[in-house]
Amino acid sequence: MKAQSYPASLTTVFLVHNGSAAAQRQQAAQLAPEARHLTLARNRGWTGGNNAAIRVALSEAFAYVVMLNVDTVVDRGWLSGLVQAADEHPTIHIWQSRILLHGTTKINSLGNRIHYLGFGYCHGYGQPQTTSSSAAMVDYASGAAMLVKREVFETIGLFREDYMSYYDDMEFCWRARLVGYNVGVADASLCYHKYTFRKSPTRLYYLQRNRLMTLFSLERWGTLLMTLPCLLVAEGVLTGTVGRLFALAENYPDLKANQNMMQLSEELRSTENKVAFARQAFNDGVTLRKKGSMPLPPGSRQTMR
User: Fold this and answer.
1) pLDDT digits (tens, 9 = 90+) for 63-96
2) Distance CA 104, CA 88 (A)
3) pLDDT tens digit string along 226-270?
4) For the chain, how far is it from start to end, CA to CA, in angstroms?
5) In this structure, are residues 189 and 145 in contact, taking their beta carbons and an 8 Å threshold?
6) I need a surface site. Which of 89, 91, 145, 193 has the fewest CB within 10 A?
7) Contact residues for 300 (Cβ-Cβ < 8 A; gap 6+)
């Protein structure tokens, strides 16, 4: 980060300690003394950690906010590529870097796509590094390396902290596109992501829960009715997998008493209510925006990363 070609005088680095231990915070302070360190008492996930820094950036009138995951390495011109794309394209409001798989010359993401059943996937995954992004705009940007113009947050709000992880970037970009904002890929901004697909009950749960919450919160009811037969088939397979997981837990007392398993059980019971509240909250927000009660104050030329 210190080697970035973009002027350091125009940036502020926020490092969020998301429930980190004291030894980790101390080490980070030594490695990045120039950063502004924000400490959260508990791990609030990708969304909560980013929101903590975003609130500060918005209160200090930053023009752009850039999210960068800790499991990434960036090219020297990474930030310059993002800012240049944002400056030169006023009609595109959210930008993603060209993301490569770390240690390879293969694509991780050239912008993400949304399947009609609510599944998100990486466009271009596994293809050669030279592959063109092929589209000026995409469905949603990967949160691994994403720039968002301040007016987007001021219009639709921040990331949903109840998502914790997975599909949080998809939900945010979908919300933004519904009110007229666009998403693009900055080809000149290179990011290398240490991405691995790990299978675990927790990951499966959050992927499934957050996909459904997004789909039923933001998709049009007419479209949901048209795709209902396919959706029911998909849910039969996926729900069966989750059901088998909890049936297995019944046979193993230690697993049933596991804190994570207990949390999954509780959150599954509350997901239906969260979906209903999510749709109402979004509708209320759009209504306020249309009435002009959510102004867009001008930003400065500062950038947060």
Assistant:
1) 999 999 999 999 999 999 999 999 999 999 999 9
2) 30
3) 877 777 666 665 555 555 555 545 555 654 555 555 555 555 555
4) 10
5) yes
6) 91
7) 61, 62, 63
| 33-66: b (≥16 Cβ within 10 Å) or e | eebeeeeeeeebbbbbbbbbbbebbbeeebbbbb
- Residue for token pair 């240690």: 103
96, β-bridge pairs: 146, 185
Calculate the CA 35 to chain-centre distance.
Answer: 22
User: Which residues have C-beta within 8 Å of that of residue 86, sequence separation ≥ 6?
Assistant: 64, 92, 95, 147, 149, 186
Which domains does the chain show, CATH number per domain? 1-7+15-305 (3.90.550.10)
Cα 291 to Cα 294: distance, rounded to the nearest angstrom: 8
Record the tokens describing residue 64, joined without a space.
């752009």
